[in-house]
Design brief:
Order of helices and strands: HHHHHHHHHH
Oligomer: single chain
Strand content: under 5%
Low-confidence stretches: 218-224
Distance between the termini: 84 Å
Shape: globular
Number of strands: 0
Helix content: over 70%
Length: 224
């Protein structure tokens, strides 16, 4: 088991929470000037860098653990989009959201002893975890290079590199890919996508019923 240095974890936690908070603020605020965007990012970094309990990152880490590398990657991609004047996606891509929600549910059930499969502790494996991370990193690097879901692939690649090189945030592969906040986002995105798909199917079923009387009237006019 190769764990990251405690000081490195603390620095990572402060910086990661700062970038996540800045990405959220810039996604919600109608900011267009680049200077203002830089000031918001600088202000959140300075606020999270305050010592001990004076830093919001201290309490956020107590409540939600360290941000996963994947959440940090999404925050960086969102900041990049806002820098170029694009609006970030509030809902995660349906396929990715469903996968993260399912994996998170499985891991939480395993952690609480409901399944008792030992999946979470497998993330500390000195052989399997690094091999899986390297294989996944190659796959997502190819995806990003080809332009297939470039932003999510780049975020995933960032998370895998942080784990492979620095073992951040905790030395566990699953913690590099998932955290409570990211899992909640994935679960919410999955519910939103399911509701949209259900609404779309209902709209398709309503169209023939609504078109029926119109079709009959059109045929009657033609007959006249």
């Amino acid at each position: 088991m190769n764990l990251p240095d405690l000081m490195l974890q603390i620095v990572y936690g402060r910086l990661a929470w700062a970038l996540v908070a800045a990405a959220l603020l810039l996604a919600l605020l109608p900011v267009t000037a680049r200077r203002t965007k830089v000031l918001i990012v600088a202000a959140t970094v300075a606020l999270m860098a305050l010592p001990g309990p004076a830093s919001p990152a201290y309490w956020l880490t107590l409540a939600l653990q360290y941000p996963s590398g994947l959440l940090l990657g999404f925050a960086v991609m969102a900041l990049r989009a806002r820098w170029h004047g694009r609006q970030p996606r509030f809902a995660m891509r349906p396929g990715l959201a469903l996968g993260l929600a399912a994996i998170g549910l499985l891991l939480y059930l395993d952690t609480f002893g409901v399944l008792a499969l030992g999946l979470y502790y497998g993330g500390f494996s000195p052989v399997a975890a690094p091999l899986l991370a390297c294989a996944a990193a190659v796959g997502f690097a190819v995806n990003a290079w080809r332009g297939h879901a470039a932003a999510p692939s780049a975020a995933m690649l960032m998370a895998l590199l942080l784990f492979s090189v620095l073992r951040l945030p905790t030395g566990n592969l699953w913690d590099a890919l998932l955290d409570p906040l990211l899992w909640s986002w994935a679960l919410g995105s999955t519910i939103v996508a399911a509701r949209r798909r259900l609404a779309g199917r209902r709209a398709l079923h309503r169209q023939p019923a609504q078109a029926g009387p119109d079709l009959v009237a059109a045929r009657a006019v033609r007959a006249e």
